[in-house]
Inverse folding.
């Protein structure tokens, strides 16, 4: 038997022979992750980390759930692969189960291997179905790193890939803390919807196939839409015959305390894209849920799209087990209950720490936005950059066994949906101490 590699050997060989995403390769400093269970994972030296970001906002049911692992093993014993033109039992069963939880008549599903592919195919479906070309997205969106999805993305990661796919038009987000429309108002005015309609007018509604949004913006600041926004966007799309596509790759499958984030506002989009929590990332799988009318359009028309691993049986088996775990272990209800606890802890941090400008959450989907000055709301890190304070905070959290996602001036709080109140308290105690350190750093500057 080949002896186990040391932590140092794992890191050295990984950095020598593999290429990391979103990274300057010489500055990569990975954790040598060895095993995981529930809300924790351990590195190859035995150090335990509380996973406060569900890895990449995806391990919704927690790590190493035996029921999902058993489903994968059972499927491997039966049928490992079937071509995309085959009907299989798991394909039939997952479609039936998803149709039970998706809103309205979004009862037909195109399976992919991830969120980027789901978004690319959703746009293709919209363009073919409407005969229109343009798509409206938002500046703080992230929709994936493949060529088309990268252009659908609004954040700066798309810059290096431009010029890319044409026809993408961007609008501003309903970002209450830094709103360009109602920052001087005491309450949200929803004037951002007038902005969207104005852009539609300039672009020509008959040229716009779809509006594609993250229902709740994830990576770029966790922006929860104000009440009335999604309803207003749905009305705008209906007025001009434009499809509404909601990207729920990150916020779907229980993360917000509902099956899908749109359920909170009782809005039914024309398509929902999903991935990540669909299998809790145990195996790669994405899907486009579409209205029956959209699927029917292709009854006699060939859909010009496909994937070798479309409806891969192993992945579908993992998804079925994941849906069963979410439902039978009441993890969506736990996301609501623990989400209320988390919202309280976030509010406590905001009340205590000078560096906390704003906190936002819905279910177990949360963020802490850090500032250098509360009055001016100066971000603690520049747009598309970092800062010594954010670097030090990241190091402190890891040193103290808390793993989460820091992006620009934001700290994410997205633990697995199985988390307990005691485990939440453990994480927030570490965050509290880390923010004490940041408070000292910004105070020293003044």
């Amino acid at each position: 038997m080949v002896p186990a590699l040391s932590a140092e050997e794992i890191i050295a060989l990984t950095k020598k022979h593999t290429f990391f995403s979103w990274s300057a390769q010489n500055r990569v400093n990975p954790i040598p992750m060895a095993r995981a269970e529930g809300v924790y994972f351990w590195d190859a030296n035995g150090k335990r980390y509380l996973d406060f970001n569900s890895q990449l906002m995806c391990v919704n049911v927690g790590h190493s759930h035996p029921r999902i692992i058993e489903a994968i093993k059972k499927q491997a014993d039966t049928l490992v692969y079937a071509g995309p033109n085959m009907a299989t039992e798991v394909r039939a069963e997952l479609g039936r189960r998803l149709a039970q939880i998706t809103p309205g008549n979004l009862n037909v599903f195109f399976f992919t291997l991830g969120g980027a592919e789901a978004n690319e195919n959703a746009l293709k479906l919209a363009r073919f179905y409407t005969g229109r070309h343009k798509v409206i997205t938002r500046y703080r969106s992230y929709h994936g790193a493949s060529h088309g999805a990268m252009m659908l993305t609004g954040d700066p990661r798309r810059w290096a890939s431009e010029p890319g796919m044409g026809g993408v038009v961007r609008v501003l987000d309903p970002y209450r803390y830094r709103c360009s429309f109602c920052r001087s108002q005491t309450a949200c005015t929803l004037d951002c919807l007038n902005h969207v309609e104005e852009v539609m007018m300039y672009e020509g509604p008959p040229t716009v196939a779809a509006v594609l949004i993250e229902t709740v913006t994830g990576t770029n600041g966790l922006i929860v839409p104000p009440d009335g926004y999604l309803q207003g966007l749905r009305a705008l799309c209906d007025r001009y015959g434009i499809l509404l596509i909601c990207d729920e790759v990150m916020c779907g499958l229980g993360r917000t305390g509902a099956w899908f984030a749109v359920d909170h506002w009782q809005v039914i989009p024309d398509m929902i894209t999903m991935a990540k929590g669909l299998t809790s990332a145990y195996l790669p799988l994405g899907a486009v849920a579409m209205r029956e009318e959209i699927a029917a359009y292709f009854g006699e028309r060939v859909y010009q799209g496909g994937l070798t691993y479309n409806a891969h049986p192993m992945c579908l088996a993992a998804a079925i087990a994941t849906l069963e775990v979410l439902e039978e272990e009441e993890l969506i209800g736990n996301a609501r209950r623990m989400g209320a606890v988390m919202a309280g802890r976030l509010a406590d941090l905001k009340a205590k720490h000078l560096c906390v400008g704003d906190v936002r959450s819905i279910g177990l989907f949360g963020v802490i936005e850090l500032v250098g000055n509360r009055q001016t709301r100066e971000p603690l890190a520049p747009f598309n950059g970092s800062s010594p304070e954010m670097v030090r905070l990241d190091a402190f959290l890891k040193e103290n066994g808390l793993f989460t996602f820091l992006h620009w001036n934001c700290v994410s709080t997205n633990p697995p949906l199985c988390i307990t109140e005691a485990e939440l308290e453990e994480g927030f105690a570490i965050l509290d101490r880390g923010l004490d350190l940041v408070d000292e750093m910004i105070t020293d500057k003044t």
The first strand starts at residue 33 and ends at 37. The mean pLDDT is 96.
